[in-house]
Write the structure tokens for this entry.
Amino acid sequence: MANDAADYPLVALLRHRMGVDGAGVTTLAASFGCPLRCRMCLNPQCWREGTRYTRVTARQLYDMARVDDLYFQATGGGVTFGGGESLLHADFIRRFRALCGGAWRLTAETSLNVPPERVRTALECVDEFIVDIKDTDPDIYRRYTGADNARALDNLAAVLAAAGPERVLVRVPLIPGYNTEADAERSAGRLRAMGATRLDRFTYRVMPEWPARE
Ligand code: SF4
């Protein structure tokens, strides 16, 4: 891929974020494309047909983000790649890293339900992984996302081994209508057994328009 390929489908660029997607002050670069179809997806514009987005080069995104260079460097922050599924664009993130160097913290929000080669690329250039694992039970996961979770769990094991648990925050939600407290606790236990030490436990807020469990 050419270094200047305009291959990052940028849906939104959100600046000056704190405490929501990575350490310090962050700029969230949300991308189009996701292999999952979560029943309570908060970002359906990231996969729905007809969404408008702009394809940008790594240089263009870098130029947009660097207006906050001082904030990033003062707070240990940087750019968070979200979505959608950020690791569909792991090659792009690697090219972005080549431009921004090591001073910015690069974070990827991901389900890890992507081909393992994308994960290997991300391990070269991402400082922190925020992993939305949903639930470790395959039936619950399938009912909620429409997909199998074996690849996500295999990738998580690889990331924990290669990056170390301190670089991996795993989100373990209670999803009303899809899993129970006991299910979420089982997931947390399994994730700890895999070596995860940073778990983010929380409950999804149910919006009235979301469909009920089938
Ligand atoms: S992984 Fe995220 S963006 Fe993709 S469908 Fe699920 S909630 Fe939506």
